[in-house]
Design a protein that fits this description.
The chain is of the alpha+beta class. Helix content is 25%, strand content 39%. The chain contains 4 helices and 7 strands. Strands 1, 2, 3, 4, 5, 6 and 7 form a 7-stranded antiparallel beta sheet that branches. Strand 4 and strand 5 form a beta hairpin. The model has no long low-confidence stretch (mean pLDDT 84).
Length: 165
């Protein structure tokens, strides 16, 4: 049964919280997709993801031209994989930046919130697709063998759904 936006956000909130890193994919002017690792900011997921960026970066230029992005999250410990498609925008909001900034970010932004060109990237999720594999390694191996033997990927013990955000 399809989930509505409220259920979709609630389902994704825990998944986003458990993922510390992600891959952000943007599109270049010539149509190539580029992905780079990004740190997931520690804030309650409400349908928006937040990242710190350098305004002069290629990713910001790409987003200005093509705001549709994808954020891929993996949590191998819990056998969860999530792909969030959405629209990105550069945001200048000092209060939000103060809320999200941590000491660890000083590796990339040495002057903290006063780093020249520091900005926030907000990704508003439109849809999310997720995959959950069985918790048991034995169940996954047996399911993989059955899927191969019967040439039926649906025999692999996993759940795959798309939710609207």
């Amino acid at each position: 049964m399809p989930q509505g936006p409220r259920e979709g956000v609630a389902k994704m909130a825990g998944r986003v919280d458990r993922a510390r890193l992600c891959m952000l994919t943007t599109m270049t002017d010539d149509g190539r997709h580029l992905s780079r690792p990004m740190a997931v900011q520690d804030t309650e997921f409400d349908g928006d993801l937040w990242f710190f960026v350098d305004e002069g970066s290629d990713k910001v230029a790409q987003i200005s031209a093509h705001p549709q992005v994808n954020v891929a999250l993996a949590n191998e410990k819990d056998n969860e994989w999530t792909s969030i498609a959405g629209t990105a925008e550069v945001v200048h909001d000092r209060a939000k930046a103060e809320e999200l900034f941590t000491k660890l970010l000083e590796v990339w932004f040495p002057d903290g919130l006063d780093t020249p060109g520091l900005a926030l990237l907000k990704v508003h999720a439109d849809t999310a697709e997720y995959w959950d594999a069985a918790d048991s390694k034995v169940k996954r191996v047996i399911g993989m063998v059955q899927a191969i033997r019967h040439d039926d990927p649906d025999r692999f013990p996993a759940e795959n759904r798309t939710v609207q955000m």
